[in-house]
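hiii, so i know i said id send this last week but things got crazy w the move. better late than never?? heres the sequnce for the chain we talked about at the cafe, plus the structure i predicted for it. fair warning i was half asleep when i ran it
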Amino acid sequence: MKILVIVIGTMLVLAGVIFTAQSKSLLGPQSSFMYSNPSWTINGFMFIIVGIVALVLAIIFNMGFRDKLKHHK
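okay and structure toks below
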């Protein structure tokens, strides 16, 4: 489960970076609907934030489960 959350979080961050770069005219073809579109800057930042939150939660839960395992031994 933790691996799945890490993969999804990483993919969300990467997608957010790509969306933001396209909206800032740094990446992608000019014919794209995201190219130079300010609303996709906001969408990209939201994807990045959600991805970072997922990664942080995966790390926190991993640390919590390690502590519980240490106390049971």
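btw The chain has one domain: 2-72. thought thatd interest u
miss u guys!!
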